Amino acid sequence: MSMQTVERASSIINLASDEKRLATISPTSDSVGVVSCSRQQVQNNKVSLSIDSVIVEEPLQIRLLYTDIHGQEQDRIFLVTMRTPGEDVSLVTGLLLAEGVIEHAQQIVAINEHIEDIEINTNEIHVSLSSDLHLDWDRIKRDTTSFSSCGVCGKSSMQSLELRNIAELDTQPHWLAMPIIDTLSERLYQSQNLFHQTGGVHGCALFDNQGKLLLSAEDVGRHNALDKLLGKLACDSTMVAQQKIVFLSGRISFELVQKILVAGITVLAAVGAPSNLAINMAKRFNLTLIGFSRDGRFNIYHGAFRLNLTALDNRE
């Protein structure tokens, strides 16, 4: 029997032994959104037993308590989304704003207020809306496109935004210096506590025109991360959207552009690539859209007028 065969057999025996030991280790919770679990790590044909930090993914059912267009009180399930627990209030606020259910955060008058603490399901949230906000449920369900997989949802979303008469974006030129953009990826990375623990989340952050990080959010879902971020912004009466930048850790889809436009943010940048629908929507609503922003490089797909590019040398 060759030495290689012996080593392989030994590894199999060790693996089986580790599996028995793993069964005796119970996963523990480290913090909100993170749990510990046992793992077998294989490196250089050797197996070792260790503990890993894993991001939590759980469903959140959102119920709306509201007054309909006929003046009747209603209690309905709005939707169920998979998310990382934590900052659920910000998530729900950002989501309801993005989907046009509410126009500002103050139209949420209570969350889980009518439920005794002992009865609260941490994966269900009850949102009471202002009594003077009369919702057309059919319109809400028709216009809720963030979770759609239909072939025409991009066109529908653009038309929906036009019909909602969202505010035109500020067109102040040259307020964002090019070197600022180069710093955003690293600053977002440094703020991502959940990512550093697990490596399994998306992140996004809000920056001012000097590149100062103002707010950040993380979630297993990139849509949820952005909803959390924009929900925080909406709930902060001291902060305005003008001359702010949102930076994303991944690619840019049209749904994310839609959320940015509703929030009134004028510059959206990301580590990854934008889709064609994202670019089309940016052009339609005059959003500055920047992709592939990393390693001192970035691509401007629309809205370069907001950037101060005097230091840019494009004579290569």
Describe this structure in words.
- The chain has 316 residues and is of the alpha/beta class.
- It has a domain at 176-308: Cytidine Deaminase, domain 2, CATH 3.40.140.
- The protein is 33% helix and 30% strand.
- The chain has helices at 3-23, 88-98, 137-143, 153-164, 178-191, 193-198, 222-235, 254-263, 276-285; strands at residues 28-31, 34-43, 46-55, 58-68, 73-83, 108-111, 124-129, 134-135, 176-177, 202-207, 213-219, 245-248, 267-270, 288-294, 297-302, 307-308.
- The strands form four sheets. A six-stranded mixed β-sheet has the order 11-10-12-13-14-15, with helices on both faces. Strands 4, 5, 6, 7 and 8 form a five-stranded mixed β-sheet that branches. The chain has a three-stranded antiparallel β-sheet with strand order 1-2-3.
- Helix 2 crosses helix 8 and helix 8 runs parallel beside helix 9.
- It is globular, with a radius of gyration of 23 Å.
- Mean pLDDT is 85; it is low at 22-27 and 145-152.
Give the overall average pLDDT. Answer: 85
* Head-to-tail CA distance between termini: 62 Å
DSSP helix count?
9
**SS strand fraction:** 25-35%
What's the total number of strands? 16
Class of the domain at 176-308 in CATH? Alpha Beta
Q: Report the biggest beta sheet as strand number plus sense, adding barrel if it closes.
A: 6 strands, mixed
Contiguous runs where pLDDT drops below 50 for at least 5 residues:
22-27, 145-152
Output the CATH topology of the domain at 176-308.
Cytidine Deaminase, domain 2
Question: CATH architecture of the domain at 176-308, please?
Answer: 3-Layer(aba) Sandwich
Overall spatial form: globular
How would you classify the helix and strand content by structural class? alpha/beta
Cα-atom radius of gyration: 23 Å
**Looking at this structure, what is the CATH superfamily of the domain at 176-308?**
Cytidine Deaminase, domain 2
**In sequence order, what are the helices and strands, one letter per element?**
HEEEEEHEEEHHEHHEEHEHEHEEE
Tell me the strand order in the biggest sheet.
Answer: 11-10-12-13-14-15
The helical percent reads: 25-40%
